[in-house]
Amino acid sequence: MELVHEMTMRCVTNGGVVTPGPGPLGMRVVASLSGGTVTGARINGTMQGAGADWLLIGSDGYGRVDVRGQIVTDDGAAVYVQYLGLLELTKAVGTASVDPTAETGYGDQYFRIAPRFETGDARYAWLNTSVFLAQGRIATDGVEYEVFRVT
Question: What is the pTM of this model?
Fold first, then answer.
C-alpha cells in the first residue's frame, strides 16, 4: 500500500461563521465555504456552490471536522466531496483562528481528513473508486489540504 499525491485542495471559509453554542456533544461551529481551488496532475478546478464545515469542538482538545462541498473542474465536471477528520486544537491553531494573517504549517497540529469524492463524469471515475487521506493546515482564508490516494 502506498500514498500517491493527487491534489492540493484549498477551501475558503470567509463566507460567515455561525456558532450555535455548546451542546451535549461539544461546541458546534459552522463555517460556510465561499470558494477555493483544487490543483493536481489529474484534476484542477474550483470549489463552488453550497458547502460548509460543521466543526464540533470537544472537551478533549480536538475538533471533529465534517465538511461537504462541490468542485467544478476546469473542464466542466461536477464533483461532490465530503470529508470527516480530526483537528488538534493547538496554540498555533488558536492563534490562526483569531488572527486573519496567521497560518499554520502541516506539522503544527494533527489535522487529518478522509475525503470521499462522487461524480458521474467518466473522466473522473477514478475518484469514485479510490480511498483518500489528507493532511491539513490553517491558511489565512480557510484551510488547505494535501490529498493522497491510497493505492
Answer: 0.95
